[in-house]
Amino acid sequence: MAIKAEEYGRRRQRLMEMMEPNSIAIIAAATEQLRSNDTYFPFRQNSDFYYLSGFAEPDAVLALIPGREQGEFVVFCRDKDPEKEAWDGYRHGPEGVCQQFGADDAFPVDDIDDILPGLIEGRTRIYYAMGRDKGFDRQVMDWVNTIRSNNHAGAAPPGEFQELDHLLHELRLYKSAAEVKLMHKAAKISAQAHIEAMGVCKPEMYEYQLEATLHYHFAMAGARCPAYNTIVGAGANGCVLHYVENSKKMKASELVLIDAGCEYQYYAADITRTFPVGGRFSPEQKAIYEIVLKANQAAIAEAVPGNHWDKPHEVSVRIITEGLVELGLLEGDVDQLIEAAAFRRFYMHRVGHWLGLDVHDVGDYRVDDQWRLLEPGMVMTIEPGIYIAPGDDSVAPKWRGIGVRIEDNVAINKNGNTVLTEAAPKTVAEIEAIMAGNIL
Ligand code: GLY
Ligand code: MN
Ligand code: MN
Question: Mutual orientation of helices 112-120 and 134-149 as an angle, nearest 10°?
Fold first, then answer.
């Protein structure tokens, strides 16, 4: 199921084909982040580095050097060290990286300052992630200066520095069949976890207890970690877009909004479902919910090849504006309200984002100053919402503190799209049946 060695090789090849002649690309692994004395935050490899190598260790740098006779794919990594491995775990070491990850050449990372300048020398252009990490920026300049200081010996430092993101992220935007398969698996695991959360939810439980249910089911299905911090927001907490405290006791009369997805073999799922803690929607909750559901379904129908990136968003804006007018939460002419962006008081984010190795995945949304067209291989979220602030005294009290978002993951293909998250129930009838204990 995992991405095969040949696919990593193809990715490197394609990137090298996009690079200018006589250039080098340098990509650093993620570094471990200290939490407190001797304790680190969970390590997660940098997605660009992983995409090109499948290598998940920290303290590594990879270089792609098209046309280099002794090999184009060079890795610097931690050396084997039995004592350190006894404390911190297995290291592949340079030899292991050549054997298992297809590197043509590999060296201990401790020797990088002696070796890498020699690999850069004579190349006219360096591609790297400029300005993202001050330490790495400085390192690149140090390597270039090392070459410069040898200038009297005829060494030529590169004169051009270019952002690597533009090339690499364009590749990452188009998912292969193997990638979509992994994302589908991530989505199915996450959908099942949402069903489990609906099944166990009871009034007086704490939000973090639902979070624990989701994470337990991720892990039991083979996905150890969430792809981002899980949001479980009951009542007015559902109106806080990035609520992650998850600390409140939930009441029967409230909706709970859960935004949670697992990471499966490095690929993210990103699902939001909103359901009543007590098992039945109130008339007001249902009215808002049905508008968001209609916007979700209509936007998914527009996430097809040939439509521009903004089309699903435009459709969601129209349906939400019409719905809010019908309920009396907005007043006026729908076209004028859209023109004036009146919906933003209740729907303040966009309908979605790219999804992949990162939850907010890479790739440009505009090309040549136009919204880009959707194409097969792109994977995006569709996640309209309506959030009525608890303190919004411009609306009747019965509406206040209702927050609803419904988020699915959609893979564009030549026939239209596949909804990767379709196993996560979202109609009122389905949700109420699950919560009543009736098996669907
Ligand atoms: N979970 C983050 C998002 O929905 O964009
Ligand atoms: Mn989400
Ligand atoms: Mn999302």
Answer: 70
Tell me whether residue 405 is one of the annotated catalytic residues: yes
The model's confidence at residue 155, banded by pLDDT at 50, 70 and 90, is: confident
Count of Cβ atoms closer than 10 Å to residue 31 Cβ: 15
Q: How many beta carbons lie within 10 A of that of residue 182, not counting itself?
A: 21
Average pLDDT over residues 280-297: 98
CATH no. of 174-435: 3.90.230.10
Tell me the CATH number for domain 5-172. 3.40.350.10
Catalytic residue among 360, 365, 366, 375: 360
Q: Which amino acid is at 380?
A: M
Residue count (the chain): 440
Which residue is closest in CA terms to ligand 1's atom 3?
270
pTM of the model: 0.96
Over residues 73-100, the pLDDT tens digits come to 999 999 999 999 999 999 999 999 999 9
CB-based burial, 152-166: b 16+ in 10 Å, e otherwise: eeebebbeeebebbe
Q: What is the mean pLDDT of residues 334-341?
A: 98
Q: Is the CB of 322 under 6 A from ligand 1?
A: no
Domain segments of the chain as ranges: 5-172, 174-435
What residue type is assigned to position 252 of the chain? A
Partners of 381 in the β-ladder: 409
CA-based radius of gyration for the chain: 25
Share the mean pLDDT of the chain. 96
Question: Alpha-carbon torsion 36, 39, 44, 48, what sign?
Answer: positive
